[in-house]
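Hi! If you just cloned this repository, the fastest way to understand the data is to look at a raw example. We've pasted two of them here, unedited. The first protein comes first, obviously.
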Amino acid sequence: MTESVAEILLVEDNEDDARLAIRALRNQSFANKLLHLNDGVEALDFLFATGTFEGRNVLHTPKVVLLDLKMPRINGLEVLERIKSDERTKIIPVVILTSSSEDPDIRRAYELGANSYIVKPVEFDNFVKAISELGLYWMLLNK
């Protein structure tokens, strides 16, 4: 898979959570269409073809962004705000996938245009199930 045709953009700094999400998506045959990035800076570089992704065709946008909130450098809310405020990317569905169940985070995410807010289940089987269902919904059911 090349970065220019990623259908799922997973932005997650926790390697364990990323590995589990990728595993769950692989079980649904979606992992070959996935790009995992470690922080908000990388996500914005990818989406807007800057930095290490300079020259990438920005017309190839992901079908969905799975976005953690608590990340170094640029947090998920800042990434979400940038995605939803730009004409080129504002229609990309963004699913917040985070451990934060704090009301201010939830409210702010929806104010900024999040399409869904999912609190990561702590238990392994529930986490895998939640990611699998996300993949099925956003990749197959949602138009």
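Ok, and the second one:
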Amino acid sequence: MRVLGVAAGGGFPQWNCACPNCQGARAGDDVQGPLLQSSIAVSPNEKDWYLINAGPDVGRQIESFAALHAGPGIRETPLAGVILTDAELDHTIGLLSLREGSNLTIYGTETVRRCLNISFPVMPMLKNYCSWEWRSLYTDVKQKVGGLGEELGGTMIIETVPISSKPPLYAEANNGVHDHEDIWEVGLLLHNKRSGRCLAYFPALDRITPEIEECLKQADILMVDGTFWSEDELVKLGATERNASDMGHLPISGPAGIMEKLSYYPKQRKILIHINNSNPILKRGSKEIETLRQKGIEVAYEGMELEV
């Protein structure tokens, strides 16, 4: 299974936070330039590709990765589907750019499906533009993705892990009260049945539950939330009065931070993704990036590519 993305594959150049007010100040020659929105592309056979989340930069991301280019036939595309981890605008608004008469399979929880039919009605809006099939993800069911058969290496298995029952701000404003049992945000375990290996993909984490911990233990490669270095990162910058946990993110540093948590998992690779542009780990040669290196933790970068 090949994984490409912002930090994990060719041509998806961004791990930027989906939260409001996450606009940090970065400048100078030692800092990376502006990044695109968080997304990765995954293929079980290097023929059929699935995007995990589709943000506003999806067009530029597809253009920058040749394997996702359309053709050779009219309306022919190697893009087979989109797997949504939540209904945040920065992870779903790119669906509008993918209409173009395409036949895609969209995966997401039932809560996300309802949201995309009511609060942000992408599905009704596009029903006359494209033929999309919706497949719901359930936290107690492993979902097969891909159509060539496991014996040909054409199928991957998705395991869905609940993270949060907090709706996006726009859905909260439109619908008022939500059922506290609604699953608005999930992490994913992507299993390659052929190799027996799996990737844990958690672009946002506000806590690590026993269920999440169990998933992190069994995965071979971890790609987890690295949005903020510190709890009060944006507060110190004067950008907001909300700290990292208020926005649904565990900070990297601190006794209960992501860095400390990852130190318990002796995995082949541990990679931080979804990095906000206020985060000092984006600065070359920073003491924060050196601390991560000493801990054996990687920072996602443009052009990164993984085999699982």
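That's it. A detail worth noticing about the second one: The two ends are 5 Å apart (CA to CA).
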